[in-house]
TrEMBL record:
<dbReference type="GO" id="GO:0043531">
    <property type="term" value="F:ADP binding"/>
</dbReference>
<dbReference type="Pfam" id="PF13560">
    <property type="entry name" value="HTH_31"/>
</dbReference>
<feature type="domain" description="HTH cro/C1-type">
    <location>
        <begin position="17"/>
        <end position="57"/>
    </location>
</feature>
<dbReference type="GO" id="GO:0003677">
    <property type="term" value="F:DNA binding"/>
</dbReference>
<dbReference type="InterPro" id="IPR027417">
    <property type="entry name" value="P-loop_NTPase"/>
</dbReference>
<dbReference type="InterPro" id="IPR001387">
    <property type="entry name" value="Cro/C1-type_HTH"/>
</dbReference>
<protein>
    <recommendedName>
        <fullName>HTH cro/C1-type domain-containing protein</fullName>
    </recommendedName>
</protein>
<dbReference type="InterPro" id="IPR010982">
    <property type="entry name" value="Lambda_DNA-bd_dom_sf"/>
</dbReference>
Length: 436
């Protein structure tokens, strides 16, 4: 008969057993009658003080309709007893992270509220490409990970990578189950069963699930724990209305940095002496980067690797809107470039929305009323509104008031570039758009 080691695993097994027994509305005595064990022994197992046998795990699985979770927990421990059962998958926080105090406080307050009320927490951070959603989430998750003794699960869902497809939720679930010590052969085949086993394993644990760069609500929904004590935090370029409606997710919209935060970011990468010695140039540089962390970071790295280059010179070079996207690119790492980041959003637009985006890029300052946009796009007002809304829902356009929109400077430069490309492509009879 296989025995489970006395460790975290025994405690998890006990918590899972208690959860399933209560879910079925059974007392310890009733379950004891069904599996022919004594209530006292079952109570010790539930409290993590005794180790279950595999036979008992299977019996309980059957009687409690636990979908193999209990046997998987017992089986994985017996095959390969883990030293501990606490995934800690979070990547390191951004070096030189600055600012975002208000958002960090908002996240803390949401967590405190969920702890007080005993309700599960789901938070979605959404905003434009490169605005710092992932950096903020990873920073916060690192700060609060100690409050989650069950551990932290993390996955980059690749929802907006310029050169990769979004990860399938069923694959993420398989990895999460294995991280939770389910032995690979016990991972069920289909998505629904994997999701059910995942939720069952998390029941009774305090676990933080961190889902980065989600494509949409559909990708995320099966990965949400949904039980009290657990929390999920998600980033996406898309407004995740689906999980807000279905899972009651709280939303933290993230916008560009303040001018002060932008200068602090430059200080963190370039060094305060150099930046503060040219404070006016630093502010101008930050404006040219539209206070967008990704742009600021690229500009800062450029300066850091050129110690004799003045901030004023780079700010001057960035004066030319057309050349900005060339300057805000990293020759070593094509992913660290604004074009690559913007392409990840542009690529997923349907052809009409993509066309609208390109044409809006031709507007001289990017501040548009819907009626002006309708003129530029050459479509009726109602139809134009829907197109503008679809661009705003993926943060390629900002809604600034009723029927009013703004296309941020760097995005406008990108849209104008794509418009030029498209004309050249049509002229040359090229087969289709490419990443740049
Ligand atoms: N608060 C911050 N302090 C310092 N650097 C930051 C901060 N926020 C973001 N950055 C830097 O800016 C860049 C973009 O940030 P991040 O990847 O978090 O953006 P994102 O919004 O998740 O982008 P995407 O939409 O492409 O996923 C990264 O290099 C990151 O390190
Ligand atoms: Mg991100």
């Amino acid at each position: 008969m296989q025995q489970v080691n006395m460790d975290d695993h025994t405690v998890s097994f006990g918590a899972a057993l208690r959860h399933h027994r209560r879910q079925q509305g059974l007392s310890l005595r009733q379950l004891a009658g069904l599996v022919a064990y004594s209530p006292g022994w079952l109570s010790k197992i539930e409290n993590g003080m005794s180790t279950p046998t595999m036979q008992l795990a299977r019996l309980c699985d059957r009687e409690l309709a636990a979908e193999g979770v209990l046997a998987a927990l017992a089986g994985s421990a017996a095959d390969d007893p883990p030293p501990r059962l606490r995934p800690a998958q979070l990547p390191p926080s951004t070096a030189g992270f600055v600012g975002r105090e208000r958002e960090l406080e908002d996240l803390d307050a949401l967590l405190a509220h969920s702890t007080e009320t005993g309700l599960p927490l789901t938070v979605a951070i959404d905003g434009p490409a490169g605005v710092g959603k992932s950096a903020l989430m990873i920073r916060w998750a690192g700060q609060v990970s100690g409050s989650f003794p069950g551990g932290v699960l993390y996955r980059d869902l690749r929802g907006s990578s310029p050169d990769a497809e979004p990860v399938r939720p069923t694959d993420v679930l398989a990895d999460f189950l294995i991280a939770l010590r389910v032995c690979p052969p016990a991972v069920p085949a289909d998505l629904e069963q994997r999701a059910a086993m995942f939720r069952s394993l998390l029941a009774g644990l305090r676990m933080l699930v961190v889902l980065d760069n989600a494509a949409d609500s559909r990708q995320v929904t099966p990965l949400l724990p949904g039980t009290a004590g657990c929390a999920a935090v998600v980033t996406s370029r898309r407004r995740l209305t689906g999980i807000a409606v279905r899972a009651g997710a709280s939303k933290i919209p993230l916008g560009p940095m303040s001018p002060a935060e932008s200068v602090a970011l430059l200080c963190a990468v370039v060094g305060p002496d150099r930046v503060l010695a040219e404070a006016d140039a630093a502010r101008k540089l930050a404006r040219h980067c539209a206070h967008l962390p990704l742009a600021l970071r690229i500009a800062a790295e450029r300066l850091a690797t050129r110690p004799h280059r003045s901030l004023a010179l780079l700010a001057e070079e960035l004066d030319d809107e057309k050349g900005r996207l060339d300057l805000l690119a990293d020759a070593d790492d094509p992913h660290l470039a604004l074009r690559a980041a913007f392409f990840g959003s542009y690529r997923d637009l349907d052809p009409e929305a993509a066309r609208a985006f390109r044409l809006l890029g031709l507007h001289p300052d990017g501040r548009l009323e819907a009626s002006v946009a309708a003129g530029l796009i050459g479509r009726p007002l109602g139809h134009t509104r829907r197109l503008l809304e679809s661009l705003a829902s993926v943060h390629l356009l900002e809604e600034t008031g009723p029927d009013r929109y703004r296309l941020a400077t760097l995005l406008r430069a990108y849209a104008a570039e794509r418009a030029g490309d498209e004309e050249a492509r049509v002229g040359a009879d090229d087969p289709g758009p490419t990443a740049r």
